[in-house]
Amino acid sequence: MNGLSRILIALAATMGACGVMLAAAAAHLPDAARLASASSMLLFHGIAVLAIVALADRAIVHARIGIVAAVGFVMSASLFAGDLSLRQYAGHGLFPMAAPTGGTLLIASWVVLAIAAAWPKR
Fold it and tell me: Block means of pLDDT (10 residues each) for the chain, length 122 residues?
């Protein structure tokens, strides 16, 4: 396992921790639907990052392409969740269209993962 894989695992764990914190906040704050969505994106995609690292390490998916998908999940789920969380707590987002951009990049990352699964391994 290389250094990038270890970094991705640490980032996935951080996404999981933040997802749990946001879920708790969503459960206790009034009108916190944004936080519930942000929590889901972090939790689901944190687990996906862990799975991709494991699949790439075992050469079940094309490793380089799979890692690109994992990096995409970390960046885009963080963008999506960060925008929604900032909107909840500060009353404004990161930048216009930040959450939809993060969501679109998440879709693209899933497509990249599909390519990693279909790409012939050497």
Answer: 94 98 96 95 98 96 97 98 97 96 98 94 65
* Count of CB atoms situated within 10 Å of the CB of 68: 17
Contact by Cβ (8 Å): 113, 66: yes
How many whole angstroms separate alpha carbon 14 and alpha carbon 8? 10
pLDDT score at 1: 72
Instruction: Please choose, from the candidates 61, 77, 55, 84, the residue with its C-alpha nearest in 3D space to the C-alpha of residue 11.
Output: 77
CB neighbour burial string for 23-39, b if at least 16 within 10 angstroms, e if fewer: bebbeeeeebebbbbbb
- The two three-digit tokens of residue 19, written as one number: 């997802």
Helix H or strand E encompassing 68: helix 63-90
**Structural domains of the chain in order of their starting residue, each with its CATH number:** 3-118 (1.20.120)
What are the helix and strand counts (H, E) for the chain?
Answer: 4, 0
Looking up tokens 């951080």 gives 14
pTM over 0.90: yes
